[in-house]
Amino acid sequence: MQRDHPLKDLNTWGVGGACRTYDSPGTAQEASESVAAALKQDLSLYVLGGGSNVLVSDGPIKASVIHTEKLNFIKLRRSDNCENIEIEAGAGVSVKKLLALTIEEGLGGLEFLIGIPGTLGGALWGNAGADGCGFKGLIKEASGVDWNARTIRLGEDLFEWKYRSCPVDEKKVALITSCVISLKITPKDLIFKNVKRFAGMKKGQPLGKKTAGCVFKNPPGMSAGRLLDECGCKGMRIGGAVVSASHANFIENDGDASSLDIYKLCELCREMVLKLHGVDLEYEIKFLGNFKKD
Fold this sequence. Notes:
This protein is an alpha+beta fold. The chain has three domains: 66 residues, 2-Layer Sandwich (Uridine Diphospho-n-acetylenolpyruvylglucosamine Reductase, domain 2); 128 residues, 2-Layer Sandwich (Uridine Diphospho-n-acetylenolpyruvylglucosamine Reductase, domain 3); 65 residues, UDP-N-acetylenolpyruvoylglucosamine reductase, C-terminal domain (Uridine Diphospho-n-acetylenolpyruvylglucosamine Reductase, domain 1). Helices cover 24% and strands 26% of the residues. The strands form four sheets. Strands 6, 7, 8, 9, 10 and 11 form a six-stranded antiparallel beta sheet that branches. Strand 13 and strand 14 form a beta hairpin.
């Protein structure tokens, strides 16, 4: 376990300070030991994957961070008499790598992941999806660590699927270390057709920029990006943080933004939507550290 570990290079916005302690376990047992060590030091615990979908505060952060980068194994379980193939994958496996493997193997079901950054663990914890498609019905079981630092198994009956919400009980589960996904053998032309359809939905999202993905969740029956656009948020700037000119639900770090710049801009956008539309946008991104509204 390392102390005072910088997090700036471990998140896609490229901002933030250093956490009190840091560990990168390679097995479920090591993850259990990491959780136990954090609990003994009376520190809040944060699990970091690919570093998207999170805003890390500036300065010293009184927290213990567990990085899932080494939990990156993938195993295929084949059966000659079954249309489904199970994939067991670690939480640290990149979404891009997992999707590429399923396409190569002719397995359908995860096409909705195209264009989604980060790791499997983060995507599962945040219930990532697109156009009503997601992990529901695909996750057969998962392994993790509870808040007593014990390794646990989670059957599919323990998952509750709600829009962009953690599907497991966060009061009981500290982190997920791996999961088993069941996918159907599917003609590749159909898989590519689905990938193209989902990729088309990402049109307009800023590519090659320092962002963390969508900042806000879509309110029921509405588009957060459209609400922000109608408020004139595109191009707004605070310090080095700027609302993307191509998609108003993305905030870019143009090179020298601080975490506070980004946070203030997020809050300003929320206030404008609330004032004009009467809609209180809910954050899709998570926060690591301390953030206080002025």
